[in-house]
Amino acid sequence: IFDEKNVTNKDSTNIEIGKKIEEKAPIVALEHSAAKTASENKSVPKSGDAATGSAVPEIEQRAIFLEEPASPNLEPVRFAGQVIWKLETYPSSVGGVSDTGARATITVKDIGLTADIVIRQNRDQDSANSHMIEVKFTTDLGSERGKVSDIGVPELRSEESLRGAQLAGIPVPVTDNLFLIGMNALPVESQKNLELLRKMNWILLPIRLENGKRSALLFEKGKTGNRVIEDTIQTWK
Predict the structure, then answer these.
(1) Which of 11, 85, 102, 116 could be 136's S-S partner, Cβ–Cβ 3.0 to 4.6 Å?
(2) 56-61 long-range contacts, Cβ below 8 Å, gap at least 24?
């Protein structure tokens, strides 16, 4: 879980993709505000907007915050949390167009951390990124862990304890506690990414905290997450 390679890759081969993500950062930061407003609406989104015409209920799935132990001989420290999946529609960076995205809101109360993750299509045809993942953290003021200083590329797992496969993408910091992950637009890589999102049941997001500790968020899709992801992908076709 805490391999160095799982934290953001700074290799020079990623510079061009990183630049393209950074160009989109101000737009996505604004989109986040619109998406946040939508997420605070108490009505349940209709997946009929995407495919089936039935409502997706808000059901909590499991989430786990894993923290690097004090000694390498010990198991990671675990904190239990919850994740709620939603299908949302929000303004696009392309004028006059609405986008549909899959939102996962993860809460780990014991450490005062919330993560808001939005998976959406990138409509910029000139970009090297077919899809974007926006990751927004909220951390308690004064926490000894501090802010999130870096993230890695998400790993998709079939089971909680089984190692899986990483998405093809590059993470880039935008502002404090806000990150973007640009997903590779090459057809083979893009198709692989979508298949992983569809078929795997757990998502692991590597994190580096401000205090230097390596950590990870491991969260479940479950039936609700699978439905939201599938309905979202259908709207992208």
Answers:
(1) 116
(2) 56/85, 56/86, 56/87, 56/224, 56/227, 56/228, 56/231, 57/224, 58/84, 58/86, 58/224, 59/84, 59/222, 59/223, 59/224, 60/84, 61/85, 61/219, 61/220, 61/221, 61/222, 61/224, 61/225
pLDDT tens-place string over residues 177-234: 999 999 999 999 999 999 999 999 999 999 999 888 899 999 999 999 999 999 999 9
Residue 45 burial (10 A CB sphere; 0-12, 13-18, 19+): buried
The set of residues, in sequence order, having a beta carbon less than 8 Å from that of 110 and lying 6+ positions away, is 79, 80, 81
Provide the H-helix boundaries in the chain.
Answer: 15-39, 187-199, 222-236
Query: Model-level pTM?
Result: 0.77
Sign of torsion over alpha carbons 150, 64, 115, 20: positive
Closest CA to 228 of 183, 196, 198: 198
